[in-house]
Amino acid sequence: MYNVSLSFKYSHHISQYIYGFLLLKKLNIIKISNIDNNITGAQHILRANIDGKKIVYDANDGDHIERNFFSIPDYEWCDLYFKRSYSENLAKNFPKCRPLGFNYEIKPVYGIVDNFFGNIRRILGKEIVRHYDLETIPQVSNNPRVLFLTRLWEPEIISEESNSIEIEKYNEIKKLNKLRIDALNMLNDNFKEICTIGINDIKYSREIAPQFILPKMKTHRRHFISMMKEHEVCITSTGLHQSTGWRFGEFVASSRAIISEPLEYIVPGNFNNYLPFKNMEELYQSVDKLVNDKELRYEMMEKNHHYYNNYLRPDRLILNTLISI
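Structure for Glycosyltransferase family 1 protein, as requested:
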C-alpha cells in the first residue's frame, strides 16, 4: 500500500487528481496520511509525497513558461513532474516531465459528511459532478445526432503599451472565436436537422453571433452531460493557450465519437481516437463521415471507452503515475 501526503491550493483544474487519490484511498490501494489544502505557490499544482518520492501534478492549460504555465520551483523540488499540457519541447528541456492526460472537473469527496452534503446539493440540482455521471457504454443508432456547444471569449483590450504576450493572447482569442463561429455557421448550414449547437451568453456573443446563444438552463453542466450522452458525435476545438479543452476529456469519458482540431499536447497511451480538422471543409468531411459510417462511429466509441478505463478514469490516471515511479 502506498503512503501518500498531498498539498495544494485548491482549484477546479486539479480536482480530477485529488478525486483520483481519494478513490484509490477508498479502494485501499493507498493510505493518505495528510492533506494540506492551504499552501502558497504556483497555480493549478498538486504536490504529492508518495513513499518518500516527491511528485508534482501540473494542470495548467499550456506549456508556456513565460505565461507561468510551468513551475520551475516545483520542478526543482520534485522527483517527477506530471504535466497536463505535455509537449516535446518540455520533454527536451525538462527530463523529469511526464504526460498526465486529459483534464476535466469533478468534485472530490473527502469523507462521509462531505459526500452527504454533496448528494443533497445534487438533489437540489447543483453542479456537483461525480466521475460516474460521465460514464456510459457505447451504443450507436441509425440516426446519430451531432453536438457542438462552445464558448466565445471577450477579446482583451490592447494598446500601444501592450506587451508581446498580451498581443499574442489577443490574437489567439480572435482566431479561436472566429473558428468557433465559422464552425457554428457551417454546422447550421449543412447539418441543422441533426445538430445541437450553441454558445455562451456574454456581451461579445450578443454582438457577434446572437442567433447561436443558448439559455443558461441548457448550458448548466449536469444538463450538458445528459445532453452529451444523447449525441453520438461530439465536436470540440482547441482552447486558449493551445490547450486541450475539458470537453475533450468529458467526451472520452462518455465514450463519444469525437471530432476536434489536432491535439497540441501529448497524453499517455498513444491516443488517436478522434477525427481531426484544420478548416471548415475538413470539419464538414469529418461530420459527414462519422454520421454516415456506423461501424467507424462504434469503433471510435469503443476505443474511447477502453482508453477511459485504462488511462483517464480518475483512479486509473493517478494509479498509472504511481506505478511509473
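DSSP finds 13 helices and eleven strands in the chain.
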